Amino acid sequence: MLLEAVWIGFAFSIGLLMRFAGLPSLVGYLAAGFAISTFSTDLGLPAESSAVLEHVAHIGVLLLLFSVGLKLNLRNLVQAEVIGGGLLHFGLSVLFLAPALYLLLSVSVFTAVMLATALAFSSTVLAAKVLEEKRELRAFHGRVTVGILIIQDLIALVVISFASGTTPSPWALLVFALPLTRPILYRLLDASGHEDLLVLFGLLLALGIGGYGFELVGLSSELGALVFGALLAKHRRAGEVAKSLWSIKEFFLVGFFLQIGINGLPDKDAWVFALIMIALLPLKGALFFFLLVGFKLRARSAFLSSLSLSNYSEFGLIVASIVLPEWLVPLALTAALSFVVSAPINRFAHPLYERLAGRLIPFERDTRHPDEQPVSLGDAQVLIMGLGRTGSAAYDHLKDKCRLVGLDSDPARVELHNLLGHNVFFADAEDQVFWQSLDMGSVRAVILTINETEAKIIAATKLRQRGFDGLIVSHSMHDDDAAKIVRAGADQTYLTMSEAGVGLAEHVHQKL
Question: Which pTM was predicted?
């Protein structure tokens, strides 16, 4: 118990300090591992991580990959800028870095290539957290960033599978039949409810059937976790599974970063290596920028995406832990320092772009990416923002009574409405670029049926800032949220549950 208490105490204390300093808590966990390693003798602790911590670390990695699988959306991945940008950046990075590392470090060709591979990845955890904090995950540059990160994660899994040296058994061919099990998995997910069984179902797939099952047939357990996550990705509750496992995944990932720190302190050579790699971060970001501009992205989107990707990855550490364990400490230090540099800069990404816009815009191509074309609402009289159940019901009720236009940030939902003949476009209320290029046309009323309260507040604020003086109506689940939306500019916010109660009562009254 003493060992676990020391781990948790150090991780919490230093992680909290990093948060107060505005840095990712992951940096604190690595620092906690280094601190435990430094004072292990005085504390009476083993100099290296225990089997328990190694097991915890492995679970954290599997849950991370399972979560990545849950977010796999082929529509977002099968884009030229995502596939082309991700693969080209990875290939060019390895092509230039591997020879340089081979000559400077006097290592083998295999080691140089694997080091370059580990350094070519960007941090999924850091980029996703920064984009989520700024509420830009669904913005165009956020989707491009996440898509490229998933491409990199898939490359990492291929590298791990080939470099681990394991030979698959003939039973491994059964993996190709796994898509046939999707209906069964969907039924089990639906039957799991919304509480403890849902969590256990996710753990069973990630650790048991996916992780251990793939090991039994000679395949990577990491690959198994990702595959079973991907099998659930199209289910409407995939996001709910990811949320239910979020805290568990974060806890076990603490073990991964602690393990790295405990297993060795960085020496002088590790610091020199890490500082040189940090000095190369601007080149990594510049390569992303020019590749994305080449795929027709505007300078602003390319800059914001490249800034989010200008760091080194925890997946690089996962690759190193399997392929290059002797390089794990230098790479961990490199990743930690890149987080220290990248996190604060990303918080000021928009003001930074404004200062550099004059120099970056000339690199834009003459044609604009289809997803960044200005949105015109034409002759529509009513705009509905958010086409979930509430928004779709509002659209169906009004479609024969006035001219409508709908906006939603889910591409699949937009496609479904378009197939029904509805006048619906893709747009994200939290995307600043969308508001800058929006032409309101003849719209006289706006109905806000977006799920997120913050998004409704942003939409009401932006509409009023653009001079829209028409009717803005919203809905909300809670009184305090309704008051915030009204203060932001809405004329009226209806309480969803209260309105549902009134509607039920009215139906009963009519029947009587």
Answer: 0.70
